[in-house]
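User: Predict the full complex structure for these chains.
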Amino acid sequence: MTETQTQPRPAAQLVDPAVLRVALLGCGTVGSQVARILLEDAGVLAARAGARLELAGIAVRDPDAQRDVELPRGLFSVDAEALVDSADLVVELMGGIEPARSLILRAVRKGASVVTGNKALLAQDGPALFEEADRNNAELSFEAAVAGAIPIIRPIRESLSGDRITRVLGIVNGTTNYILDQMDTTGAAFADALAEAQRLGYAEADPTADVEGHDAAAKAALLATLAFHTPVALEDVRCQGIAGVTAEDIAAAKDSGLVIKLLAIAELVETPDGVEGASVRVHPTLLPREHPLAAVRGAFNAVFVEAENAGELMFYGAGAGGRPTASAIMGDLVSTARRIVAGAPGRTDTATRKLPVLGIEAVTTSYSIGLEVADQLGVLSRVAAVFAEHGVSIEAMRQTLDGGEPGSGEGRAELRFVTHRASEKALAETVADIKNLDVVESVTSVLRVEGV
Amino acid sequence: MTETQTQPRPAAQLVDPAVLRVALLGCGTVGSQVARILLEDAGVLAARAGARLELAGIAVRDPDAQRDVELPRGLFSVDAEALVDSADLVVELMGGIEPARSLILRAVRKGASVVTGNKALLAQDGPALFEEADRNNAELSFEAAVAGAIPIIRPIRESLSGDRITRVLGIVNGTTNYILDQMDTTGAAFADALAEAQRLGYAEADPTADVEGHDAAAKAALLATLAFHTPVALEDVRCQGIAGVTAEDIAAAKDSGLVIKLLAIAELVETPDGVEGASVRVHPTLLPREHPLAAVRGAFNAVFVEAENAGELMFYGAGAGGRPTASAIMGDLVSTARRIVAGAPGRTDTATRKLPVLGIEAVTTSYSIGLEVADQLGVLSRVAAVFAEHGVSIEAMRQTLDGGEPGSGEGRAELRFVTHRASEKALAETVADIKNLDVVESVTSVLRVEGV
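Assistant: Here is the predicted structure of the two-chain assembly.
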């Protein structure tokens, strides 16, 4: 394969446009792939970027550690600060808050642009880092931080920049999607599906960050920040994981033509008194099986976007893994290099307003509610009366009997309700009052429904 | 909703960065929506672009014609050239080759960037127009030209710029996808599904460009040009439409867990003697029902991309319509405005090499072949021998009897073969020889299979 150099571009102000020195911070699963691509595809990348991308060095704690990819020993260094100081472009793949944060600030303050996949850091400090980058005409790119290889940051920031995004629904955590998909396919219980995911390497030994939804919440904050052009922080995200999802929930969903997915949901909402704001949450969600997100199987990710003019869009692909994530890093790197070669300043901060972040109370959605009740005549009518009292309209009901003659009071029944759209407040009050009915033994599940 | 202006950016060289004058050429379904958005969302767009986007005028043939959107009469003009000369940014939505081509050249030659959705023009003259834009530091953006609202051009050009795309499979024509989906869902014949599509406005009175695959071929040429960084012209695309797809083909596909889609396929291939090149084609294609593209229903579009590092990606959404297409135009417009405000020159031509475009002979794929044969003992063995002679390996076979005792020679049988990957040449020879067998009455269908 031969690629010829394109026309030379106007020179950048600060750097030699023929060569851009790239510092790589971290050399794990993703970093080692980035290093490999920079070395293997140097010719092609130079043709596309308009400048040679020279791997200046790789900062690691232990230069002698075993890596996924064999790399020249001379590239490694333990002095990350010196490496940053010598670079035109910095790729940060250390993860965690420090020293990643200080090194990124060090880079942008001297005008070097940074490419990172560090969602934890961005969800905590994104707006401050974006501002600092802009102040120095540097740029902070982070396509790899959400949904791995899937181009979603750039489409939201650029392709949809002339539209009004009203809602983002994302399957942004492969581990939990794998577990829920296994439960759906095999009928397995949560604990067994988790164990299987751990055995296959889809879940870590300590799966908390994935299973409790913390990883998805960080990505939800980033997606909301970009989609609504307003800063949204991790603490603004209401988060519920999948540990409480039972095999019975999955089976009941299946019976109703639904599937349970852990969704990161960011939406523009309006309070009853007309205040517009953003609502951002992560929770297990029932979706109709015909919804495009329902077909996202295994550890794949997908982001579904609703915009005023574009309508419904979906972006699908691998959400993790060394090579896919490295692809996203390389896309940012080549795009940033092109901009530098063109002599344009970076621009990261796209927040053009400060919308209030509204609590989940401002959200209306449909709910699926499961109850265990005594199998007596008149129970349904008493439960239905509670819904009506709180203005929650019932769309569908299904009753399953469990022992005894129907209506004899000897057996038990399970009731599953699906409501029309209702407010979180009305629902919470409904559930509380239903729990107090003497004929109700327990509320077995409350799940939100989207896409209906 | 309030949006505050962001920090002012460094001034562009040629234009007042505070106001960019936008000329709109054409005011049909898409153009009228672009005008509406520019007028309605002026404040939000200014905040995002960093400059006010002022609709300077709309060039139309008949200012008094009825439009989808009510617009101030004073905006209309019949003098497109004068309008172009007064503008910083030109949106071309006239369609067709002339005068669109001359007006785009006029704009870029004076340094004005152009946003267009004109796939016919780009498939014919794209590379020449891209070069002319680059020579003048202008830019030609065309996200709307492929798959309507779906961001696919920008992700390929930027997000995947550090990866090696090996294949693109696209459902890029909503009319044919609607017709095939109807045939699949209802069992309708092609002619009836087409009539229904026309009744509902999904197909035009003269449906040739859609049904024969010409529209998809233009988009395939554009996708290949971008994906492989090499110029690909419309005449390089081998094209077969869907008029020959029968209800029997659809039913047989269904029986085998497959679905028929009209795909635009661009792939990197290698000839037996080691020459790497691009192969670009449009034809009805069998896909497994589990493939992400199989779930694309109705008039929706989707583009499936395979890249060396990113793996499999899919982009899904509305492929046509005034508002969705206008969303893509507006994304290009805001992104271009940001670049101008930042003072950077445009860059359109991303061809970094000149790959040979190889004929379909260089492609290997799986095939599904349907035959009507005499129901005699030994027929299968004679047909199978012909496959073997040409080195085409059979993956699966299914026989359906039609009258008479099995093997008695009184009835007929239909045979459906699915092959392993084989070259187009070996397959063509196999089919020719099978036709010559005295026991074969006819070859009822030859369809390519992807995604298996």
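Residues 1-14 of chain A have pLDDT under 50 and may be disordered.
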